[in-house]
């Protein structure tokens, strides 16, 4: 008798694919990520993932978009009730903590290899997170400089470079032995982030 193909049954395959993809990237890197491997891990047919992601580019774009949305949510949750410097500091903390909490997402968010269509979509979804950081940077700047577009771009580039660099070094760099800290020591990691963002605030405030 001919075998009758049975449809896959999964409560929320799209989100399951994204969650499993993030785990796989975290442990084995982006190169190891394939739709076939995710199908095997989730126990569904090889064709099932294509109902949600037609190819690897679409899957990676979905993972990155999910990460940018969560990052924007985290940054938007940071209170603005104190000084601009403390707001920038707390945003730096939220940014790096997101990277440490979602390393699979984070590596994909800032990786390369997306199609032009995916890059356009990610630029749109990433704008919300960037705009929050930009607001804090402008609030930190002297009023005269905050009205000059080039100065704002330079200050934002500095702030983004520092928090992104800190996140990547904490994720992938051999910092702990040289700094005599454990990456599991949240207070020590927070102190490092605070020192980095304090230097950024000073540079932005003084126009350096």
Automatic annotation (TrEMBL):
UniProt xrefs under InterPro entries: Homeodomain-like_sf (IPR009057), HTH-type_TetR-like_transc_reg (IPR050109), HTH_TetR (IPR001647), MT1864/Rv1816-like_C (IPR025996), Tet_transcr_reg_TetR-rel_C_sf (IPR036271)
DNA-binding region: 34-53
Name of the protein described by the UniProt record: TetR/AcrR family transcriptional regulator
Signal peptide: none
Residue ranges annotated for the HTH tetR-type domain, each copy included: 11-71
Alphabetical list of SUPFAM superfamilies matching this protein: Homeodomain-like, Tetracyclin repressor-like, C-terminal domain
Keyword annotations from UniProtKB, A to Z: DNA-binding, Transcription, Transcription regulation
Organism, as annotated: Pendulispora rubella
